[in-house]
Amino acid sequence: MQPRECLVKAAGVRLAELLGASPSTLLEVKKGNLEKLQEIQSILVVGSSGAGKTTVVNMGRELLATYPELGQHFEIPKRVITRPMRENDDTNENIFAKDDEEFDRLTRGGVRWERDMGDGRIERYGFVAATPGKMPIYSANSAILANRASVETPDPNFFDSALIFMVHASDDTRARRLAARSPDLVRDKPEEAKKRLEGTPVSQYENSHLILQNPDGEGDSVKKNLHAVLVALAGL
Known about the structure:
This protein is an alpha/beta fold. The protein has eleven helices and ten strands.
């Protein structure tokens, strides 16, 4: 049997090879970062508000339902949030905890982190614990990378083994999407909306493993690229 170090290294290298064999204008493979990834135990979908993270993760749900072999390999844990529910929030993706006690109960054994909203308010995010034996696809946000000190997880190697999957869209596109998704936020809390539209720090792009462009009108191509990533991961 090969040493574990060889098997771990081979995962990142092999994934880079598989994805690099079919280049895409929408999917950027950060080959140098990917080859350094020690293990791939989870997929961490991140990006700024309006980039289309929820859309991409919902595409993932469709793919897992359509292709049983993917559904056996991956799962998408529910995300738990402490902020109040807004207009058009996706209840298929989110559970809105009524207080910290409920949040702690729902996310026990899962991943938790905090987002500083800059007005003295802290939003807590987390996931229901993943099913053992399945690779979780986490619908997160950039705060999980920016505020790593707040992250709680039962896995001490969480970031070392997470595939950072960055979803990107232009600033104008993100602003339009946020206005359509959360009109009450834009109308009633313009300063918070402005903060949510702040761009993702360059360092997060530099340290990601995959960057998926998600422009308007390219849904089929975005889904095709996501499918290719999942098939490649399932085959490792």
